[in-house]
Design goal:
The protein contains 10 helices and no strands. With about 210 residues, it is mainly α.
């Protein structure tokens, strides 16, 4: 079980051992299940686009089709999160902390949501934890489904399309970028952590 969880946090292992099916499941889980907040969404999407350019036989799918499938996984993941939030409602705030659930993650999302409103569903796609809990919180607050779906689709297209298109371009024109994945992943973590830290500090100050 430990080895399996370790592989789920390593984007290269996810694609190497699970292929396209596990890739799509991880994207779905990170955007729709509150247990998926630890999954490497940004890094996974980046390396998927990169490998589609440098090692097309590994995923055995064209880049346009890969884009569509990943976007659909992200959209349906958010829809599941929205449904879960609508059903669970305020009971989530009374839920005890566990390995897979932290109440502070929901509170961070609430602070981010209060600042950016429905746009959180778009902006939050690029921020770990926020992208997991934003659709759940949207369901809790009772936002209209049509409005939710508009932000959901725009966010998925921007997130998946932006990151994977950049990595696909780099893989096509600068294939040696594969030798610097560690540095790229660290950069992605730092960049996406800045808004999260800011939201956390705002939440603490408000309290």
């Amino acid at each position: 079980m430990f080895d399996f969880l370790k592989q789920l946090t390593d984007p290269e292992s996810i694609i190497k051992y699970g292929g396209l099916a596990l890739l799509l499941f991880v994207i779905f889980a990170e955007t729709g299940l509150f247990v998926g907040f630890f999954l490497p969404g940004d890094n996974l999407i980046f390396i998927a686009g990169l490998l589609c350019a440098t090692k097309p036989d590994l995923l055995n799918v064209s880049f346009p089709l890969l884009l569509i499938l990943m976007m659909l996984a992200a959209i349906t993941g958010n829809m599941f999160g929205f449904w879960f939030g609508k059903k669970a409602g305020e009971a989530l705030y009374n839920r005890k902390d566990s390995f897979f659930f932290r109440k502070r993650h929901l509170e961070l999302t609430k602070a981010f949501y209060e600042k950016h409103g429905g746009k959180t569903l778009i902006l939050g796609r690029f921020i770990p934890i926020i992208r997991t809990f934003a659709p759940i919180f949207a369901g809790v607050t009772g936002i209209g489904f049509r409005k939710f779906m508009l932000y959901n689709v725009i966010g998925a297209v921007a997130w998946i399309g932006g990151i994977s298109s950049i990595s696909f371009y780099l893989g096509k024109h600068f294939p040696e970028v594969e030798n610097h994945l560690g540095l790229i992943f660290i950069s992605l973590i730092v960049l996406t952590a800045i808004p999260l830290i800011t939201a956390f500090l705002r939440s603490r100050k408000k309290q």
